[in-house]
Amino acid sequence: MLNPNFKYHPSELPSADELFEALKNGDRLALARAISLLESTNPSHRKLAAELIRRSVEVKTDTLRIGISGVPGVGKSTFIEAFGNFLIDEFGYRVAVLAIDPSSQTGGGSIMGDKTRMARLASRPEAFIRPSPSGNQLGGVNRTTRESLLLCEAAGFDVILVETVGVGQSETAVYHLTDFFMVLMLANAGDELQGIKRGIMEFAHLVVINKADGENLTAARRAAAEYARALHLLQAGQSQWSPHVCTASALTGAGMAQVYDFIDQYRRLTHATGYWKQNRLLQQSYWYEQAIASAWRYFLQKNPEKFQIYQHLKSLVESGEVDPFLAAEELFEDL
């Protein structure tokens, strides 16, 4: 969807009014420009991005945030394309994909190939795909993934899929970013039970055995049964949800309806218990900490009066009165 009133000039900085109005009307070009401003280190860009976030958090939405992780080769991008198309075709949802690509540790570059791998989904007007480099950020996400998610919500997307880098068991930051977290696994990968013991599997709401088609179907079903037995050893968390396991195939579309059914069951359960809202507030506190920790922790420890300001803003974030990104910006401004 393009807004004819929004004029894109790469060399010019648009006003917050112009850019946010276009973004709120669902203009994907405006949304892409806003995310680029978030990722920029230019002070004027950062100031404009903060204003866009300030306006975005005031937009009341009922979005579904889904994190998707898994080791390289498991078929995350192919699965996301199939699942995104399923959500659009079956429910008429508008779907945004925030895909994090690994950055080079030497040159800092990133391949950013997700739009190529999701060509059909990328061409649909109901979808928006944004690949971003991971940079030096740990946890499988980009340093501005959360704020990009808020912009997507303000732009009217119903479902936001966050695809992590895919480097292994340490990718737990996306769990603190989304409402529902699924992990894609392969049959016969040699780690069916090892993956249960530590790390990422302990956070999963759903384990999906991907590429369950053709000659691999029997092995996928066997792996799913093994995972299901092993996951019973894990205690249900505060959400009162026990992790589930299913098989799926992006090639045939099998399993997509079951994946969504599990997500819908989780959403209905946690809305009924109040955990859905509670979890989002807990995430607010987590991301506030992440927003300031790397650059300002040492400085705050050396300045007690500034530390008191930090504690006050943290209490406002934890009560849901202030957005974490905006609280961090206010703290930086004071410093």
Task: Characterise this structure.
The protein has 335 residues and is of the alpha/beta class. The protein has 13 helices and seven strands. It has helices at residues 16-24, 28-39, 43-56, 76-91, 114-117, 119-122, 145-154, 194-197, 217-231, 256-273, 275-301, 304-318, 324-334; strands at 64-69, 95-101, 127-133, 159-163, 180-185, 206-209, 244-247. Strands 3-2-4-1-5-6-7 form a seven-stranded parallel β-sheet, with helices on both faces. Helix 8 (194-197) links the parallel strand 5 and strand 6 (206-209). Helix 2 (28-39) packs antiparallel against helix 7. The longest helix has 27 residues, at 275-301. It is globular. It starts with 15 loop residues before the first helix and ends with a helix. Mean pLDDT is 83; it is low at 103-113 and 135-141.
